[in-house]
Specification:
alpha/beta; six-stranded parallel beta sheet; 12 strands; globular
Length: 362
């Protein structure tokens, strides 16, 4: 999770000793060496209520018996353990909500489970010393609900890595084993989940010629995407790649011609989302085709780096992709506009707001 890494890295660079705590699943990749300590729990359960319960129990015990001067909880599923340790040891607690957690579609369709998470949130959130989240819309939701002042720290990358006109895309594609004679459209993310538009993106390839769709990441619809590829015989048009370290991912991103971010306005969390992949596309110099969500629209329109779909109908998505890839003049202009965006939307700037959150706590 790049947001977690940036947070830990920044605190480490400020001279603090940082321990990043998470879980290690059966298929988890190894983590590259980092300038801070990493502790990953091996748990009996990998999903469901027993996972969340055992993870928070292990986290609570670890935090209780290890010295710390500040606790930093990432998302609601880590907040309970941190809140209990804050109560027992009197340690400051900062809470970073990466999304409007109780509004995700996986919970909206399960009201009983959603109510449990809501109770956990209500019991814990007012005990935090500071809170941050990813955009103003979600910050306003939390403010209205809990009367908290929530600081906005966006998911911008550390800085431009491949957003350079001198990049040899042909050479980069050869290195990565990607086709050099076709256009490449990419959709990426750690959470390629239901209602994020990935299914429509795959099906749209039935109507897009001389183009490859590159799907990179993990999520709960990947199996369904593979079934769509098999159903419509799209094996020569869709390439799947697993989750990978960011330094590898950004090379694939930079090799593409167009980035997709097609989340649907079906729940509060997605409506007000501002996905990591949008900023990754910007840093990689990619024009963007997006669904018209408020926070995404602000960025795409302000910097004029892409356009929007009118609906999620696969034929209409395909029509937009075809129009964009044929209009080389507009593509070049969007790329040029993206250079300004890539210079402004960096962690070097955004981290100043992040660091200010800790004033008086450390």
């Amino acid at each position: 999770d790049q947001r977690v890494h940036r947070s830990a890295l920044t605190l480490s660079e400020l001279g603090h000793r940082v321990t990043l705590i998470g879980r290690k699943m059966s298929r988890s990749p190894e983590v590259e060496e980092r300038p801070y300590k990493i502790k990953r729990f091996h748990l009996w359960f990998e999903k469901g209520p027993l996972f969340y319960a055992t993870y928070n129990l292990r986290l609570f015990i670890y935090l209780l018996f290890h010295r710390s001067d500040l606790l930093f909880a990432n998302d609601l599923d880590t907040l309970a353990a941190n809140r209990m340790v804050k109560f027992l040891k009197g340690i400051p607690l900062v809470y970073d909500s990466h999304e409007y957690f109780t509004g995700v579609p996986e919970l909206e369709n399960r009201p009983f489970v959603q109510s449990i998470w809501k109770k956990i949130e209500k019991a814990c959130i007012k005990g935090v010393d500071r809170m941050i989240t990813v955009n103003r819309s979600i910050a306003d939701l939390y403010h209205r609900e809990y009367q908290l002042d929530v600081e906005v720290v966006r998911n911008v990358p550390l800085g431009a890595v491949y957003a350079d006109e001198t990049i040899d895309k042909t050479g980069l594609r050869k290195k990565l084993g990607l086709p050099t004679d076709k256009k490449i459209v990419i959709i990426q993310g750690a959470g390629i989940n239901i209602q994020r538009g990935a299914e429509e993106a795959v099906e749209s390839m039935r109507y897009v010629e001389n183009t490859i769709l590159l799907v990179i990441g993990g999520g709960d619809v990947l199996q369904e995407l593979q079934m769509l590829v098999d159903k419509y015989q799209l094996a020569d048009k869709v390439i799947f790649k697993p989750r990978m370290p960011f330094n590898e991912l950004i090379q694939y991103t930079s090799s593409a011609d167009l980035g997709l971010t097609l989340d649907k306005d079906t729940n509060l969390n997605y409506r007000f989302s501002l996905p990591n992949k949008l900023f990754d596309y910007i840093q990689a110099g990619l024009p963007v085709l997006a669904s018209r969500l408020p926070e995404v629209e602000k960025i795409v329109s302000e910097y004029s780096i892409g356009t929007f779909i009118h609906s999620h109908d696969p034929k209409e998505v395909a029509q937009k992709i075809n129009e964009i890839l044929r209009d080389t003049a507009t593509l070049d202009q969007w790329k040029k506009n993206g250079e300004l965006a890539s210079r402004e939307l960096t962690w070097q700037r955004e981290s100043l707001k992040f660091i200010k959150v800790f004033d008086g706590l450390l």
